[in-house]
Design goal:
single chain, 527 residues, alpha/beta, 13-stranded mixed β-sheet, globular, Carboxylic ester hydrolase, AB_hydrolase_fold
Length: 527
């Protein structure tokens, strides 16, 4: 056992080893904020409270994940008391050695599912092997994390502000674990990646991190922002049998804060598909907040506008996606793919209504470009999956990265295409499909129960990706040495990106004609 003293008290951790036999210390289930229960439900996170004696941080309480519906079984799991984190470090502070770079991971799950503390499903081994400190954590999800009533007691984006609070905790305490608070990289996949994007945009996050890695998610993706929070609140109240005025926010707040968590959460999930049948939606997700003049808002303007105007935190960035992202949309809402395949309908899936003339014009453009290279041997759903790969993920990731690069930010783009035995989404859900589907690259960064299936080639790819990610965390450059190929940064004049497949190769100009159509739509409708 090992004892570390932080601002709130003493923590008892333990020593363990990675798969490769590297010794490290772990501190599990550490509170980074006051439990958001009772009157703190829906409110911004508060600093953690101190404790007496030694707090046991050697084991995970799996009941302390944030309250949510468990997708596999449909039952409700977790707790409102859930703001905890894990710290993994290969060495503790030593006056004779430098502090280590810190990598803080934000989990995905559509802002409604997942957790950051169950180690068996998020093992740090392959990052620790590269001599960095790793932090993973929970944040409030769904209605508890993203309800917005436009009043100070329920502003919205509480889940994102939990993330900010976790980063503040890192700044205050990580040096006690051998980590350098002046060298923090935030990274995430899917909704975790979109969260990283919000931290690039938010003044609340400025100075709390120094580099960012975004994998298959952007604040520009329609599923990552709720443009109609009132509609979702009205649906919630209807499902809960609320009979008061829907215009009285204080009465609504009192009703929701005293409602049983199970009733509240179940009602929040119900009917979401009917509200957004034309696209993927997770219901309660980030919103553009009302500004109350107290500098506690996460974001008060449209993300695209903030990027375009250069109102973001300038730090080096790795940004990328998988080549078969659209297969997830096919699995989640097959009727959407069918609508594109059968009806060539590319224009009725947006989160905003297009002008009729634009529907006709962009419909023609999309048809021309997506139907162009379809081969007889392709999957019959290929057109739909290709469209939704761009629509749901790639266009937002690519265009936000373009705007960062235009303002002089070092951006390293990648496309992940590798098909191995430890592709995350495929293994998790037992899927057989060509290419790499959404979040498949996660299997090459963290340890999972299926990691033991890795063959020699999988291990080589995993080793190289983890080297690149940790090199970036150490030096702001992913390939200073010891990797298969130099990874050049992306610029307007030299739009290079790394293709991560059986081989690592540099490519140029990712689908410029497709991306130009999305850019034109964003310019007009994301003002």
């Amino acid at each position: 056992m090992i004892i570390v003293s932080i601002g709130q008290g003493k923590l008892k951790g333990r020593e363990t080893k990675t798969d490769n036999g590297i010794a490290y210390y772990e501190f599990l289930g550490v509170p980074y904020a006051k439990p958001p229960i009772g009157n703190l439900r829906f409110q911004n996170p508060q600093p953690p409270e101190p404790w007496d004696g030694e707090r046991d941080a050697t084991a995970i309480n799996e009941n302390k994940i944030c309250y949510q519906k468990y997708i596999a079984k449909g039952n409700l799991i977790g707790s409102e008391d859930c703001l905890y984190l894990n710290v993994y470090t290969p060495k503790l502070p030593d006056p004779n050695t430098d502090l280590l770079p810190v990598m803080v991971f934000i989990h995905g799950g559509g802002f409604n599912f997942g957790n950051g503390i169950v180690k068996q499903k998020l093992g740090p081994d392959y990052l620790i092997d590269n001599n960095v400190v790793v932090v993973t954590f929970n944040y409030r999800l769904g209605v508890l994390g993203f309800l917005s009533l436009d009043i100070p007691k329920a502003r919205g984006n509480m889940g994102l502000k939990d993330q900010v609070q976790a980063l503040k905790w890192v700044q205050s305490n990580i040096d006690k674990f051998g980590g350098d608070p002046n060298n923090v990289t935030i990274f995430g996949i899917s909704a975790g990646s979109a969260s990283v994007d919000y931290h690039l945009l938010s003044p609340l996050s400025k100075g709390l991190y120094h580099k960012a890695i975004l994998q298959s998610g952007s604040s520009l993706n329609h599923w990552a922002i709720n443009y109609e929070p009132k509609k979702f609140v009205e649906n919630l109240l209807k499902n809960m049998g609320y009979d008061g005025s829907t215009r009285d926010e204080d009465a609504i707040y009192k009703f929701l804060i005293t409602s049983p968590i199970s009733v509240l959460t179940e009602a929040a999930y119900k009917g979401i598909g009917n509200l957004t049948s034309n696209r993927i939606s997770f219901g309660f997700v980030p919103v553009i907040e009302k500004y109350f003049g107290d500098n506690e808002a996460m974001i008060t303007d449209i993300p695209y506008k903030l990027f375009k105007e250069g109102r973001f935190n300038r730090v080096p960035v790795i940004e990328g996606f998988c080549n078969e992202e659209g297969y997830m949309t096919y699995l989640e809402k097959p009727h959407l793919t069918l609508d594109v395949v059968q009806n060539k309908n590319f224009v009725d899936h947006w989160a905003y209504e297009m002008e009729e003339s634009d529907k006709n014009r962009f419909g023609r453009k999309f048809s021309e470009i997506y139907l162009k290279n379809i081969q007889p041997e392709d999957d019959s759903n290929e057109v739909g999956m290709n469209f939704f790969a761009d629509f749901d993920f790639i266009a937002g990731v690519k265009i936000s990265g373009d705007m960062l690069a235009q303002k002089g930010v070092p951006v390293y783009f990648y496309e992940f295409t590798y098909e191995g035995k430890i592709n995350f989404y495929k293994q998790n859900f037992g899927i057989i499909h060509k290419g790499a589907i959404h979040a498949d690259d996660m299997g090459y960064i963290f340890k999972f129960p299926f990691s033991k299936l890795a063959d020699t080639k999988d291990k080589e790819v995993r080793t190289n990706i983890c080297k690149m990610w940790t090199n970036f965390a150490k030096t702001s450059t992913p390939t200073p040495d010891d990797v298969p190929i130099p990874w050049s940064n992306y610029t307007e004049d030299s739009p290079l990106y790394l293709k991560i497949g059986d081989q690592f190769t540099m490519k140029t100009g990712y689908e410029p004609k497709k991306m130009a159509i999305y850019k034109e739509i964003y310019d007009k409708y994301m003002k």
